[in-house]
Design brief:
The complex is a heterodimer of chains A (about 475) and B (about 625).
Chain A (H helix, E strand, L loop, with lengths): L1 H10 L3 H22 L13 H22 L3 H24 L1 E3 L2 E7 L2 E3 L1 H17 L9 H20 L3 H6 L3 H7 L4 H19 L2 H20 L2 H28 L3 H7 L2 H23 L2 H27 L2 H10 L10 H14 L10 H4 L11 H34 L3 H25 L17 H21 L4
Helix pairs in contact in A: 2-3, 2-18, 2-20, 3-20, 4-5, 4-6, 5-6, 5-19, 5-20, 8-19, 9-10, 9-14, 10-11, 10-14, 11-12, 13-14, 16-18, 18-19, 19-20
Chain B lengths: L4 H26 L2 H10 E6 L6 E2 L5 E13 L9 H8 L3 H13 L1 H4 L4 E7 L1 H10 L6 E10 L6 H4 L2 E3 L2 H6 L9 E3 L2 H5 L1 H4 L4 E7 L5 E4 L15 E2 L4 H11 L4 E7 L4 E8 L4 H4 L2 H10 L8 H4 L9 H11 L13 E4 L2 E4 L9 H7 L2 H12 L7 H14 L21 H8 L23 H13 L2 E2 L21 E2 L7 H13 L19 E7 L7 E8 L6 E7 L9 H14 L7 H9 L10
Parallel strand pairs in B: 2-10
Antiparallel strand pairs in B: 1-8, 2-3, 3-4, 3-5, 6-7, 8-9, 11-12, 11-19, 13-14, 15-16, 17-18, 18-19
Classes of the chains: A mainly alpha (about 475), B alpha+beta (about 625).
C-alpha cells in the first residue's frame, strides 16, 4: 500500500520537465567550465573557479528543488503568496539602501562570499501573488478594479527594480502581458505594444515621416478589416499613402529645378502634405464613425492621434528620457552608430564567437573567442556565446529547442490543470523564462539591445539558478498536486 | 487546431524559437564575416620590423647603417602601482614626464583599452639595459627593439634624407601600402630608394585573450613570417669627398655639387646649411626646431634653389655664338669698362681691350657677351628678335637648363629660361628688343638654374658637348637603374666648338696672377683645372659667388659647381672651395701650398647677407 502510494507520488511528477531542467543545468555547468577555462586548465570541480562554485550552486539548487517537491505542501503557496510578495517588495526596497553596488546598480545583498539579488525572487513572488489574486472566484480582468489591482502587482516590483537601475530585470515583467492575454486581456494591448516598438524603431532608423505613413496605413487597414472593406482600402487609401511616400522625392526633384533648392526644401516640408492629408482623413473617418456609431473607428482615430504624438515624441524619449548607456545600446543595435570597440564591443565579440562556431562548433574547450576571454561576462550573461562557439549551430539550436520545449511543456501542463492558480502560475513561469530567453539570446546575437539579464539555469550565479529552480519546481509541485484529480 | 488564445501564444513561442534559430543559422552558417573576424581576434600578429637596407658609397663605405634602439611600450591596463622615481631613473627621464604620461593614459583609458602604447621612443641600448634589469618591478612596461639609422659619415642630411614614421597623408598617398607605425624614407636617398630599402615586414602569430595578453605561440610559430631585410643601396657618392665638402661648406649658405663627367654619377652633393646627421636619426624630436630655422636647413639648395647662373653662363652663350656662326674664336670685341647701348651701359671690370673669345672667358668680359648675344638675337636670318630668342632657348635647353634633368634625386627643380612669350607679357608683344634682355648674355635676368644644372654644365664642358643625366644610385644586384642614365645627352653645339671655350676656362685658372685671369686662385699644380667664375647678383645683399670647374683638362674625372650665397666674387669663395674639392678628389689630399687656403675656407662664416671679407 505504502509502496504503491510512493510509486504514484513519483509517477505524478512531470519528469520531462525535470529532465529538461537537469539537462539545461548540466549544459550550463559544462559551459561555465569552458568559458573560464584558460590555457592552464583546472578541474571542473575546482572550487576556486566558477565551475566549481556553480557545482555548489547546482547541488544546493537540487536541494531546494527536493524541499519544494517533497517537503512543502503545494497548497501553502497560495495562502503564503501575499506574505512572500510583501517580504520581497520590502527586500527590493531595502537593497537600494543596504545593498552593495555592482556595475552601477544597487540590487545585490552581500553576505560574505554569497551575493544574492532580491529581484530574482521577486519574479516568483509576483507570479505567485498574480496567480492567487487572479484565481479568486469573481475575478474578472476586464473589470477596472481588478485590472488596476493586477497592474499594481506587476508594476510595484517593476518600479522598484527600475529604481535600482536594473532596467533589464524590470523588462522581464513586461512578459506577464502574455499571461494576461491568456487570461482575457484584450489582444489590442499586445498589438499596441507591438506597434509602439515598431514606430519607435522606424522613427529612429528611417524617419518620423515614414513612421507616420506606416501608422496611417496600419490604422486605416485595421478599420478596413473591421468593416470588411479591404478592397476599398486597397483602391483608395493605399494609393494615397503611396503618393504621400513620394512627396519627399517630388519636393527634392522640383527643388532641383529652381535656383535655390535649399530654400524650397527647408520651407516646403513633406510633413505639411501629410498633416493636410491626415486632417482630411481624420474628419472623413470621424464622419464615418459618427454615421456608423462605430466605437472601433473612434478608437482607431484616437489611437492614430496618440500614435502621431508618440512618433513626434520619440526623439524626446530617446534623447532625454533614456539613460546614456541605454541610448547607446539601442543605437548600436539599430545600426545608427558603429562602435565595435565601445558599446558595440560586447555584441560584436559575442556575435563573432557564435558565428565562428559554424555548423558543428569548435569542440568542447576549443573555442578561441570564449576561452581567450574576448567575450565579457561570458560565464554569466554571455554564456550562450560559449555554447555557440564550441557546440556550433547544432548545440545552440538544441539549447534553444530545450528552452522552447520547457516553455511549451509548462504551458501544456498549465492548460491541463484544473485550478486557475496552477494555470496562471504556470503561465507566469513560462513568460519569465520566455522573456529571459528572448532577451538574453537575442542580445548575444544582436537582435535585442544589450540588456544584462542571465540565461535561466545556464548562466553562472547562485541566486539566478536558485530562483529559477524554485520557480520551476513550485510549478512542478503544483502540477503534481493537480494529478490528485486524475 | 483551434485558433484560441493559448494556441496563439504557442504559435508566438514557435515563431520566437524560429527567429532565434534562424538568426543562429545566419550568423553561424550563412554569414562568413564573423568567422574571419574570429581568426583576427584570437590571433595577434606581432609585427617584426625588417632592418632597413644599408646605404653604401661608391667605394663600399657605409654612409647609412643601422643600430638597435628600444621603444618603451606601456599597457596601461596592466600597470599596477610602481615606483615612479626608480622608473624615471632607469629610463633617464624626469618623474614628471612619467606622471604626465600616466595621467594622459588615464584620461584616454577608454580609447586605449587593453592596447599597448609607446611611451618613449628610440632609447639607446645602454639605457634600455638599465631598464630591463629592473623591468620586473614595472608590470605593464616593456621594451621593443627597433632598428634605427646610424651615420658613420657626416654626409649631410639633405643628401641622405631622413626616415620617419608615416602619417595618415603618407599612407593615403601610397595606397595603404604602409600602416601606422611603419617608417619610411621621407627625403633624399632614403626616399628615392624607399622601395629597396624598406624590406618586408614579417609577423609572429600569438594567441591572445581579450586583454591582449599573449597566451601562446600559434602552432609553435609554424605560420610565422620572417621579416625580409631591405636591400642595400650603392650610391655614386664618395663618402670622403662628401664629408670634405660638408666641412668646406660649413657656415656658408649655398651648395656644392660634384659629378663624374664620364658617367654622370654624382660624387658629392652638399647643401648648406643642412641637417646634421646627428639629428637625422631622431628627426621627430628636432623637427620643429629645424623647420623654424630661418636658414632653412631642410631646403636642399643643390636641387631645389633656383639661382641666376651669372658669368658662368657666358660659356653657353659663347658656344651658341660659335655654333650659330655669329662669332668665331678669333672675333675680337672692345671693352672699356663696359658695353654701351643707347644711353645705358653694361658695366665691366678693368681689363685690356680688345679681347678674343678665349680671353673673354679667361677674363670674364661682360661687353664681349653683350656683342655675342646681341648678334645672336639680331641675326637677320632668324627673322624677329622673338624668333631668335626661341632658337636661343632651344640651345640653352639642350644644355639641360630650364627643365628637370631627370636625376633620381627627389624634388629636383627645373629652373627657368625665359621664353619670348614671357617678354611679350612683360613688355607687350613686339615691344622689346635685344637690349631689353641683354642681361641674359651674362647669365642674369630672367634665368634661373640649380647648382645641379651648373655642375651638369661643367660636365658638358668636360665632355665637350654631352652629358649623362646626373644620378645618385649606382646599379647593384637587385637594384637596376633607368637605362636613360647610360645614354649620352648631346647639346646642339658641335664638339669642335668646345675646344676654344675649354681653352678659355683653362686659361682662366692657369694663367697666373697678373694675367687678368679670374680664377688663378683655383689653380693646382699638375691638375690642369679648367674653370669659370661667376658673380651673380643677389637682390638680398652681397653677390653670390659662383664657380664651375673640371679637371684634368684632357681626361676629366670630376666636374664641380660651387654656389655660395653672398660670397661676393666668384674667385673669393666658390673658386677656392670648388678647386679644393677637385684637389681632394684627384690627389686625395690637399698639397701644402694650399693648406692655408683650405683653412681659410673652412673657417669662413658667410651666414650674414652682407659681408666684406
Amino acid at each position: 500500500m505504502n509502496s504503491y502510494r510512493e510509486n504514484s507520488f513519483l509517477k505524478s511528477i512531470d519528469w520531462s520537465l525535470v529532465v529538461t531542467y537537469l539537462l539545461l543545468v548540466l549544459i550550463g555547468w559544462v559551459n561555465i567550465y569552458a568559458s573560464v577555462h584558460s590555457s592552464e586548465p583546472a578541474s571542473i570541480f575546482d572550487f576556486s573557479c566558477r565551475s566549481g562554485k556553480q557545482f555548489v550552486w547546482i547541488v544546493s539548487a537540487l536541494g531546494i528543488a527536493g524541499v519544494i517537491l517533497f517537503v512543502i505542501n503545494p497548497r501553502a503557496w497560495e495562502s503564503l503568496s501575499p506574505l512572500i510578495y510583501a517580504a520581497t517588495v520590502l527586500l527590493l526596497v531595502a537593497v537600494i539602501f543596504l545593498g552593495v553596488e555592482v556595475k552601477g546598480s544597487r540590487s545585490w545583498f552581500e553576505f560574505g562570499p554569497i551575493r544574492f539579488q532580491p529581484a530574482e525572487i521577486s519574479k516568483i513572488s509576483t507570479s505567485l501573488l498574480l496567480a492567487t489574486v487572479m484565481s479568486q472566484i469573481g475575478y474578472r480582468l476586464n473589470s477596472v478594479r481588478n485590472f488596476i489591482l493586477t497592474a499594481m502587482i506587476i508594476l510595484i516590483p517593476m518600479a522598484v527594480i527600475v529604481a535600482q537601475s536594473e532596467t533589464g530585470s524590470a523588462l522581464v515583467y513586461v512578459g506577464f502581458v502574455f499571461m494576461l492575454y491568456r487570461e482575457g486581456l484584450s489582444g489590442w494591448i499586445l498589438f499596441i505594444i507591438g506597434m509602439a516598438i515598431l514606430l519607435f524603431v522606424l522613427t529612429l532608423t528611417a524617419s518620423p515621416y515614414v513612421s507616420m505613413l506606416v501608422l496611417t496605413g496600419i490604422a486605416t487597414l485595421c478599420c478596413a478589416l473591421e468593416s470588411g472593406k479591404i478592397k476599398k482600402w486597397a483602391r483608395a487609401v493605399l494609393p494615397a499613402i503611396a503618393l504621400l511616400a513620394f512627396v519627399p522625392f517630388l519636393i527634392k526633384w522640383t527643388a532641383g529645378l529652381s535656383k535655390d533648392p535649399g530654400a524650397i526644401i527647408s520651407t516646403v516640408r513633406p510633413m505639411y502634405f501629410f498633416a493636410a492629408a491626415a486632417v482630411i482623413g481624420i474628419f472623413f473617418y470621424a464622419y464615418r464613425a459618427y454615421r456608423d456609431r462605430s466605437l472601433f473607428k473612434w478608437g482607431a482615430i484616437a489611437s492614430f492621434i496618440t500614435g502621431i504624438l508618440f512618433v513626434l515624441s520619440v526623439d524626446f524619449l530617446f534623447n532625454d528620457v533614456l539613460q546614456d548607456h541605454q541610448r547607446k545600446r539601442i543605437e548600436v543595435l539599430l545600426g545608427l552608430k558603429d562602435d565595435p570597440s565601445g558599446v558595440g564591443y560586447n555584441v560584436n565579440q559575442s556575435m563573432i564567437a557564435i558565428g565562428s562556431g559554424g555548423f558543428s562548433g569548435k569542440g568542447f574547450l576549443h573555442g578561441t573567442q570564449t576561452t581567450y576571454g574576448f567575450v565579457p561576462e561570458q560565464s554569466t550573461d554571455f554564456i550562450f556565446c560559449t555554447i555557440g562557439e564550441e557546440w556550433g549551430f547544432i548545440g545552440s539550436a538544441f539549447v534553444i529547442l530545450l528552452y522552447t520545449f520547457m516553455i511549451w511543456r509548462i504551458l501544456h501542463d498549465a492548460e491541463r490543470s484544473r485550478e486557475a492558480f496552477t494555470r496562471i502560475y504556470g503561465y507566469c513561469v513560462a513568460c519569465c523564462i520566455f522573456m529571459h530567453l528572448l532577451i538574453n539570446i537575442g542580445m548575444t546575437m544582436g537582435l535585442v539591445p544589450v540588456i544584462g539579464i542571465p540565461l535561466p539555469l545556464l548562466s553562472y550565479g547562485g541566486s539566478s539558478l536558485w530562483a529559477f529552480t524554485a520557480m520551476i519546481f513550485i510549478f512542478i509541485a503544483l502540477d503534481r498536486n493537480e494529478k490528485r484529480y486524475l | 487546431m483551434k485558433i484560441n488564445r493559448q494556441n496563439k501564444i504557442l504559435a508566438g513561442l514557435a515563431v520566437t524559437a524560429i527567429i532565434l534559430i534562424g538568426r543562429l543559422f545566419v550568423i553561424q552558417i550563412l554569414d562568413d564575416s564573423y568567422k574571419i573576424d574570429a581568426s583576427n581576434n584570437s590571433m595577434v600578429y606581432s609585427t617584426i620590423y625588417p632592418t632597413r637596407g644599408i646605404i653604401y658609397d661608391r667605394n663600399g663605405k657605409i654612409l647609412v647603417g643601422n643600430k638597435v634602439a628600444y621603444d618603451i611600450l606601456v599597457t596601461p591596463k596592466e600597470v599596477s602601482g610602481f615606483d615612479t622615481l626608480s622608473l624615471s631613473a632607469a629610463l633617464g627621464v624626469t618623474p614628471e614626464f612619467i606622471k604626465g604620461k600616466m595621467d594622459e593614459y588615464y584620461r584616454d583609458r577608454r580609447k586605449i583599452g587593453y592596447r599597448s602604447v609607446v611611451m618613449l621612443k628610440q632609447l639607446p641600448p645602454e639605457t634600455y639595459m638599465r631598464f630591463a634589469e629592473l623591468a620586473y618591478k614595472f608590470p605593464g612596461f616593456r621594451g621593443q627593439p627597433r632598428s634605427i639609422r646610424q651615420y658613420p659619415y657626416n654626409a649631410g642630411g639633405n643628401l641622405l634624407g631622413y626616415v620617419s614614421e608615416v602619417d595618415s597623408r603618407y599612407i593615403k598617398a601610397h595606397n595603404d601600402e604602409y600602416k601606422a607605425g611603419d617608417y619610411a624614407g621621407m627625403t633624399g636617398i632614403e626616399a628615392t630608394c624607399e622601395q629597396y630599402l624598406k624590406g618586408e615586414k614579417g609577423y609572429k602569430i600569438y594567441l591572445r585573450d581579450s586583454r591582449n595578453r599573449i597566451e601562446s605561440s600559434y602552432r609553435d610559430g609554424e605560420m610565422d613570417k620572417e621579416a625580409i631585410p631591405g636591400k642595400d643601396i650603392v650610391t655614386t657618392i664618395d663618402a670622403e669627398l662628401q664629408n670634405y665638402g660638408q666641412a668646406l661648406m660649413q657656415n656658408k649658405v649655398g651648395s656644392l655639387v660634384a659629378i663624374e663627367p664620364s658617367t654622370g654619377e654624382i660624387l658629392a652633393l652638399i647643401s648648406s646649411p643642412g641637417i646634421d646627421v646627428d639629428v637625422l636619426a631622431d628627426i621627430g624630436r628636432h623637427y620643429s626646431q629645424i623647420a623654424s630655422d630661418p636658414l632653412k636647413p631642410m631646403f636642399n639648395r643643390a636641387v631645389q634653389a633656383s639661382y641666376p647662373p651669372g658669368s658662368v653662363f657666358k660659356l653657353v652663350n659663347a658656344l651658341i655664338g660659335l655654333q650659330e656662326g655669329v662669332v668665331t674664336p678669333q672675333s675680337e670685341f672692345p671693352c672699356h669698362l663696359g658695353y654701351r647701348y643707347g644711353n645705358r651701359k653694361m658695366a665691366c671690370h678693368n681689363h685690356r681691350s680688345p679681347l678674343d673669345m678665349e680671353e673673354s672667358i679667361m677674363m670674364s668680359c661682360n661687353a664681349y657677351y653683350c656683342y655675342v648675344f646681341r648678334s645672336l638675337l639680331e641675326d637677320s636670318g632668324k627673322g624677329s628678335v622673338s624668333q631668335a630668342l626661341a632658337v636661343w632657348d632651344e640651345y640653352v635647353s639642350s644644355f639641360g637648363f630650364g627643365h628637370r634633368l631627370g636625376s633620381d634625386f627627389p624634388s629636383e627643380l627645373g629652373g627657368d629660361i625665359p621664353t619670348p612669350a614671357l617678354y611679350d607679357r612683360m613688355y607687350g608683344k613686339g615691344r622689346w628688343k635685344a637690349t631689353n634682355i641683354i642681361s641674359l648674355s651674362i647669365g642674369q635676368g630672367e634665368i634661373g638654374c640649380t647648382p645641379l644644372h651648373l655642375a651638369n654644365l661643367c660636365a658638358i664642358m668636360a665632355n665637350r658637348g654631352y652629358y649623362y643625366i646626373p644620378h645618385i644610385i649606382k646599379e647593384s644586384e637587385g637594384v637596376p637603374i633607368d637605362p636613360k642614365y647610360r645614354e649620352r645627352q648631346y647639346t646642339m653645339v658641335d664638339t669642335s666648338y668646345f675646344h676654344t671655350v675649354v681653352n678659355g676656362m683653362y686659361r682662366a685658372v692657369n694663367s697666373g696672377y697678373g694675367s687678368g685671369a679670374t680664377a688663378s686662385i683655383a689653380a693646382v699644380d699638375g691638375l690642369d683645372i679648367c674653370g669659370k667664375t661667376g658673380t651673380a647678383q643677389n637682390p638680398h645683399g652681397d653677390d653670390n659667388s659662383v664657380f664651375i670647374c673640371f679637371a684634368p683638362k684632357d681626361d676629366p674625372k670630376i666636374a664641380v659647381a660651387a654656389y655660395i650665397e653672398h660670397g661676393s666674387f666668384g674667385a673669393r669663395w666658390a673658386a677656392p672651395i670648388a678647386s679644393l674639392l677637385v684637389e681632394k678628389y684627384l690627389n686625395r689630399e690637399i698639397g701644402s701650398p694650399r693648406k692655408p687656403l683650405e683653412e681659410r675656407m673652412m673657417e669662413g662664416v658667410l651666414l650674414d647677407t652682407v659681408n666684406d671679407k
